[in-house]
Design goal:
6 helices, about 170 residues, 5 strands
């Protein structure tokens, strides 16, 4: 999950869409991990935000899944986008509450997408309504999907309408 081998395998299995979860290291590098911590999917422990990117590279993010994935390193957002561009995958980029996302950090993610000509080939998803405003400020034509864990109601519909893009 959230590793480059997983995305390659998705392509090999015939998938065209992949999802990632973006969070930031202590030194501000956007990396992929489903949770804020690395306890369950690496041989390390603690929160990603505690570590620099160089420190995270010392951990194995693949062995928990099987010996075939031993030595897998944490992926940066840029490595992920480059791989998606190379393989023709459409990324769903989830901005999680634990991600520490700011307007400036979202702009950095948008710049990475632009670098690989992937800005129109992706979809942003999140439970955090405010993050959509950050994305919209950087890219008013962004494809966005609001995640919701409760029943659909008028409040949710109004929130979705407020982030609608052209």
């Amino acid at each position: 999950e959230n590793t480059l081998p997983a995305y390659r395998l998705a392509k090999e299995k015939g998938f065209f869409y992949v999802e990632c979860d973006v969070t930031y290291t202590r030194d501000g590098v956007p990396v992929l991990n489903h949770l804020a911590h690395i306890n369950d999917n690496s041989n390390g422990s603690g929160n990603i935000s505690q570590y620099t990117y160089a420190q995270l590279l010392q951990f194995d993010f693949g062995s928990w899944k099987g010996q075939a994935y031993k030595g897998t390193k944490i992926a940066t957002f840029e490595e992920f986008v480059a791989l998606c561009a190379q393989l023709g995958l459409h990324p769903y980029i989830e901005l999680k509450n634990h991600g520490g996302h700011t307007q400036e950090k979202i702009q950095d993610l948008v710049n990475i997408l632009k670098k690989y000509d992937m800005l129109r080939q992706c979809t942003w998803i999140t439970f955090i309504h405010d993050y959509f405003f950050y994305v919209n400020n950087c890219d008013p034509y962004a494809r966005m999907g609001l995640l919701w864990s409760n029943d659909v109601n008028t409040q949710l519909i109004n929130k979705a309408l407020s982030i609608k893009t052209p």
